[in-house]
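User: Can you predict the 3D structure for this chain?
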Amino acid sequence: MTSDDDLTRIGISLPDTLLRQFDEILDVREYRSRSEGVRDAIRIYNINYQWQSDTKSQRKGVFTMVYDYTQGNLLTTLTNIRNSNTDLIKVSLQRQVTRNRRLEIFIVQGESARLKTLFEQLNALKEFESVRMTTVALDK
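Assistant: Here is the predicted structure, written as structure tokens:
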């Protein structure tokens, strides 16, 4: 736990809708204050940045994508991505979640710089509703 002496106050400006969504999450997760939620969110952001900025280690992880598979040439694009990254993508799982939406998971392993490139390639696809990456270093 952080003592009061270690804390720094900051001020932030947020759109009302974003703040309302954040407050709803804080309520569901039973945070005692916005400050506690913001600290947790910043910790998660920092961890994600560290994962993405590590370019030297071997990593294992999961990429999670949600998308509308009826959009444009998305299925062809995804097939090409899978086929050109078989050394990184160890398993690909897909599940339809609504009539047009699909959840897809890649279990990945490889050099972190190459995983980051793959993640950025997926993240750049405008048809994706969400792309998330969680990885861990193998050499720690």
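The beta strands are 58-68, 89-96, 101-111, 128-137. The chain has two domains: 15-52, 56-137.
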